[in-house]
Amino acid sequence: MRYFTVHGSNSQEALAEMMRRYGPDACIQSHQTVRVGGVLGLFTRPAVEITGYVDGKTDESSESRPQPADGKPNAGARGAAAPSLGALLDQVTALRERLDESLPPGAEVTVQRDEHPALAELRALLAGNDLAAPMRGRLIDAVRSELPLSGLQDQAAVHQFVMRRVAAELAIAVPLQQRPAPADGPRVCTLVGPTGVGKTTTIAKLAALHGLGNGGLAPPVRIVTIDNYRIGAREQIETYGDIMRIPVTSAETVDELKKAIALGSDAEIMFVDTVGRSPTDYARMAEMRSVLDAVGRGGTTQLVVSATTKFADLRQILRQFEPFGYDSVIVTKLDETSSIGNVISALADARKPVSYLCSGQVVPQDIAPASTIRLLLNLHGFRFDRKLLEQEFGERAAPNGRAAPSGTAVEVAGEN
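The structure assignment produced for this chain is given below.
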């Protein structure tokens, strides 16, 4: 048995080289992308490397055939070694199928064209920030098609262009304080989301933003919790309420929730803390949906997600909480991750506006109304003019993920 390693600029070239040198009996062991050439580690280029073996009994390698003294194969050798174009294509196809079978499940063989160094640098930067592949592809295609070749030499200009494109895919919801109050009763804001994302702490932060600083007057904020399942959940929110002097009520049924909302009619805003549910627990999700129907059409629902969640899981959460009719998203735990490209990609993919950003456990300091600039500043390695982006996107907001004109604030719909 004879082992070999061959290289090519792409998969097809590597396969063709393997076939030329070792014939159709060659067996593939591994396939990977490597970097070759260069000097002292510099100026290397990507290449495809195939390792494999051939049975020693049928070694048809051209290297084993005798060669004339002048190094040129004779006419007979050329005729014997040169198959027809059709046969060559058939063999390449067969080898490609054999290669695909040798790859792990879900793996893909991609052939990447030679590209400008600026695009290669940008591709690596986007991947390093955990932006999802679809969004990376859109951004690279936009740079390639809309920027002139001379513009690729200016890294700052490329980064500014990319940040503008990212910002254009984000939507910002109007903060609760800026939304008009209903004609009768309090504004009711319900927070939903999976377990462990920090809904209770976020409720306390939002309540503190609205309820502190009123002197000795009755607080305009009330909290209702329907999280009576998680150990210590009720005690936690009641402790926050005692410290902030904000009334906290517990409700377990639809009737109790309706009663709590009616008794809190003197408040300006009421926050409802719900039970964390797995988005795949459909029975529990339906049960909570029936409880939240008690809020009525005058309420608003916000989905709480963690910045530490993977893009694929975020996409599933955003989709499977749709039955709750959430109109915006609150992102928590920004302090627990080094990159938020996963969050930006998921929000852009679902076209959902973000309302608040949370970056710690301190109440109420570690929460702020979301803005495009705040999100962009969490992307690392980019050079861009912040003032120019603030002028274009600083006041941008959108209802239910629909894009709004630059500089326009649009109220998020309050229906559940």
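Interim note for the steering committee: DSSP finds 14 helices and eleven strands in the chain. The mean pLDDT is 76.
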